[in-house]
Automatic annotation (TrEMBL):
Protein name listed in UniProt: Saccharopine dehydrogenase-like protein
Organism: Aliarcobacter cibarius
Family annotation (Gene3D superfamilies): Dihydrodipicolinate Reductase, domain 2, NAD(P)-binding Rossmann-like Domain
Length: 430
């Protein structure tokens, strides 16, 4: 198995470590990696606990990815014969890396999409889906929006909806709400994801679907309180607009009501910044050469993401006291039993959580954040089993459609593998 990553960061280091472990266990050989980066020295810092992995790795340092996008033949020797190209950099590179994958007959994976565009919102289609036929023609797969949410969450939702459709009586899904928790308690202000990306996402007016109609509301409005399984406190969650909604609406158009909410103390900080009008794009300084907005100032002064070594040190010194990521989908059902005229209503909750953060100190994943770890584990497991079943896959694939393709036995293996990496799988009928 040969894998090329475009960009190296916290999630990339987790995915590559997991792929190496899975390959050694199942294929009895190690993965060969190529890391395409702008700064090799900086990229290597993410593998300070994984020196063995680098023995089978190469680095290609370029001043910008555009060099490769515009002159692919120049890099033929370095890029040919790789099984998968993975965009672990910004979603703005998705299409260019997909075209490279087609050029070099490689499968493709990305972790997120650039969705805050009118054409995406109006069509409810991801940009990557424009290349659906090209990947099918070459019998290659392109897995998009892979990770923990979207990714494993959509996978679990897809598996459950698929099983509901096979029941001997009529089941209607009246509503689906996905609730995410991002909670970190620490002595210092620590971001588990890029603050710049988060500010752009949370400043975007949330969209949800009510009776198949998209509804747009003010950021951080229409909140509700939600009790996450295993988490000790009730959390206030807020509607947001992310890839999950586009993906699920596209795959399951029969679900009329869809909403995504996020809560946790990281969101509370962002809410305070928003309510202080610090997300504003209004210029506070302007001359003929430069324009500076309040938004741009905040993005530059908030603390940047820390290196894995610093994160590890924070955990050792208990600067980070507790952290948890959780994603729970509540599926509202209306069941028509053949022997009864009355319809039965119920809620099925499925999802996952990760809270055993300090235990990563004893593993090669030490230094990951509480979000990058489950994201990388989720993506890595889906990538590995997609590669193992690549003869069943072609075209651009959303993760909620993988369970139907894989079948029950592989789906069970994936869930068991997630559990073996300290990720709790949750399933309850209310």
């Amino acid at each position: 198995m040969r894998v090329a990553f475009f960009g190296v960061g916290a999630v990339c280091s987790v995915i590559s470590t997991l792929l190496c472990e899975q390959s050694s266990k199942n294929l009895k050989n190690c993965v060969e990696f190529l890391f395409i980066v702008r700064d090799e020295k900086k990229a290597r810092l993410h593998f300070y606990k994984n020196s063995e992995l680098l023995e089978n790795s190469k680095f290609l340092e370029v001043s910008s990815f555009e060099e490769i996008f515009h002159h692919p033949i120049k890099y033929k020797k370095e890029l040919e014969n790789y099984d998968i190209f993975i965009n672990s950099s910004t979603p703005s590179y998705n299409i260019e890396i997909m075209n490279l994958a087609l050029e070099f007959n490689s499968n493709y994976v990305d972790l997120a999409s650039d969705i805050y565009k009118d054409e995406v919102i109006d069509s409810l289609k991801f940009e990557q889906q424009k290349l659906e036929q090209e990947f099918k023609n070459k019998n290659l797969f392109a897995l998009i929006n892979l990770g923990v949410s979207p990714g494993i969450t959509n996978f679990l939702i897809g598996e459950r909806i698929n099983s509901l459709q096979n029941l001997p009586y009529e089941v209607k899904i009246t509503k689906l709400e996905l609730n995410l928790l991002e909670e970190i308690q620490s002595k210092k202000l620590i971001f588990s994801w890029s603050p710049k990306v988060a500010i752009d996402e949370l400043a975007f007016s949330p969209i949800f679907f009510k009776k198949n109609n998209p509804k747009i509301i003010e950021p951080f409005s229409k909140s509700k309180f939600y009790k996450f399984p295993y988490f000790r406190n009730v959390v206030e969650v807020y509607p947001v607009f992310q890839e999950e909604l586009i993906s699920l609406k596209q795959s399951f158009p029969q679900i009329e009501n869809l909403k995504l909410n996020i809560g946790g103390n990281e969101l509370e900080l962002m809410k305070n910044l928003y309510q202080l009008n610090l997300f504003s794009n209004k210029y506070c300084y302007e001359d003929e050469n430069e324009k500076i907005s309040i938004n741009s100032i905040i993005k530059n002064i908030v603390p940047k993401m820390k290196s894995p070594e610093i994160i590890e040190d924070y955990i050792k010194k208990k600067t980070i006291k507790y952290a948890e990521f959780s994603a729970i989908a509540d599926i509202y059902l209306e069941i028509s039993h053949p022997d009864k005229k009355k319809k039965i209503k119920s809620i099925e909750s499925i999802g996952l959580s990760f809270s055993k953060y300090p235990e990563l100190l004893k593993t090669p994943y030490s230094g990951s954040t509480y979000v990058s770890y489950p994201t990388g584990i989720g993506a890595g497991i889906l990538i590995f089993y997609s590669y193992m079943k690549k003869e069943l896959l072609n075209g651009v694939i959303l993760s909620e459609n993988l369970p139907k393709i894989f079948g029950n036995s592989v789906n069970d293996i994936i869930k068991r593998e997630l559990s073996s990496y300290k990720i709790n799988i949750y399933n309850l009928i209310k």
